[in-house]
Structure formats: C-alpha cells, structure tokens
Amino acid sequence: MIGASKAGDDHCMSFLKVLTGFVPWIVFTLAASRLGAGAVGVACLLALVVAVGLIIRSVRHGESPKLLEVVAAVVFLVLGVVAFAVPASDAFLAGYGRALAAVILAVTIFATLPVMPFTEQYARESVPREFWTSPRFRAINRRISAVWGAAIAVMAVSHVVAGALDTPGSGGGVLSRPVDLVFNWVVPGLLIWAAVAFTQKAQAGAKAEQQAHANGAHEATARG
C-alpha cells in the first residue's frame, strides 16, 4: 500500500511512483489527440522515449524496471512501427490507439495478479523483505491492482466509444468535440480518481487494522 516506509507498515509503497508509471500512456493520449492528423507515430515515439527514460531511471537507482514502464515501451514501440510503416493505419490508430493501449495494459495487470500484482513492485521498494511473502501484503496489493486494472479496462471502453463517435477535425478546440472531451478525458479522469480514492481507503483501512492489532498486543502484554 501507500505511505511511509516503516518496518511495521507491511503494505506501504510510493504512490507518486505508481502515478509516474502512467505518464507514457498520458503522453500518448495527449499527443495523439492534439498533434493532428498523421501524428500517431510521433505520439508513440514520444511515449516510447518517456517509457524508456523511466526504465533507465529505475535501473540507475538500483530498482527493477516496473511493469507499467516495460509494457508501455513494448506497446508504443510496436504501435509506432505500425504507424510509420503503414501510413494507412494512422486513422485507425488515431481513433482506437488509446483503447488498444488501455486494453493491453488492463490485460497485463489482470494476468500478473496471481504472480506479481503491479503495485507490489512499488511496495517492495519501501517494505522490509520479511513482509514480501506475507498473505496480507499480497492480498492488499492484489485488491489494489485489480481495481486499477478494472478502471483501465473501463477506460478502454470509453476510448472505444470516443473513437466510434468522435468527429476529429471539426475545429474550434476541445469544446467543439464534446465526445472527445467526455470519453477521452472526463471519464478516464474520473476512473483514475476512483482508483486513487480506493487505494487511499484501502491504505487507511489497513493502517487502522494494523494499529488496532498493535494496541491489542500491547494491552495483552501489559495485563500479563
């Protein structure tokens, strides 16, 4: 979970690092929707550069590359190659590239839940090794990762709706494209907010449970 890295907090992780892992996906979404026609390849290249930069940063700090960073690098490398090699694919990728990227990310998050929930990578960096195999530690990270995976899966559906209904090139800025505004920005933003809120609630609940357990143990010792 998220919070300070104390020995007793067997579920802590850096929340900022988790959000940083989504930066390549945000960069792609921004660039793909704002650079105009024929810019999907450039958007993929920008996202790829950011993802590789995050991987290099992790390695230089002695940390393992994160799932979000590696998947982003692979996805945007492949999409970029397709966009540059097959110019005719640009229209499809402009409309549905964000949905495709979100689907791949959601599937990856769910597929890794039984083995290594993606949030567990971040938690291990601030949690003592002896807690890594505890059922509580694994269960908390599975729940949080599953909620993020569900949010991203719904986000993919929202991007599909935007791709099917949006009319790019109408001019007048983002307000002239309400479908794009709602389904590519408002809905994803609300989903991220909901995932963050769940994560914070899970953090508070786990800390309260841990504190209650510690207080009970202290009282039992005092009575003894």
From TrEMBL:
Keywords: Membrane, Transmembrane, Transmembrane helix. It comes from the Bacteria. The chain crosses the membrane at residues 12-31, 37-56, 68-87, 99-119, 140-162, 182-199. This is Intracellular septation protein A. It comes from Actinomycetospora succinea. The lineage of its organism: Bacteria, Bacillati, Actinomycetota, Actinomycetes, Pseudonocardiales.
